[in-house]
Amino acid sequence: MSEESRRFKVPDELADLYDFANTLDLRHFTHHGVVHPQGDELADAAGLGAWMSQRGLLAAGAKVTGATFEAALRLRACLRDYLQRDPAEGARNKDAVRSLNEALRLFPLTIEARSGGTMGLGAVREDALAGLSLVVAQLYDGSRNGTLDRLKMCASDECRRVFFDRSKPATRRWCMSTLCGNRIKTRNYRARLRAD
Ligand SMILES: [Zn+2]
Known about the structure:
The protein is of the alpha+beta class and 196 residues long.
């Protein structure tokens, strides 16, 4: 759970997944005359290690290797590709589904009985990928309880931020209508004026 996920009221059960998808920041729009700087929190293996540690996802002694880093980047790319398509627009893209499934194979999960009497998903692996498996578990839990459909990618090409749609009908297309939504509406309006 990050400051950002709290700010946008992302459910705790999806917060790591939301943060993970947004470690890549492709926003490059101009707001109040300033171009938003792009960034990648997972620029290298050390960056991934730091990101996982901050969220309690790196077990003591677990080491982020080059292979872990590669697997994490592939998972993130496939996840973002999957979330890119609004579930309301019909089935998810077949290629995106296949790629995501391939990426997910490195993160096997098992049913875990918890002392409180509940069951949950736990990581099978015991290396650094175990922490990322817990992010993957959120994907499954979200799909079971319906919240995953509300995790979407902003429709603005200059943004591509993953956001949690809290609107009642779950039909939002932009991470922030006051920002990305308005920008696109203004642009479409100008284009119409030019066409006339
Ligand atoms: Zn946006």
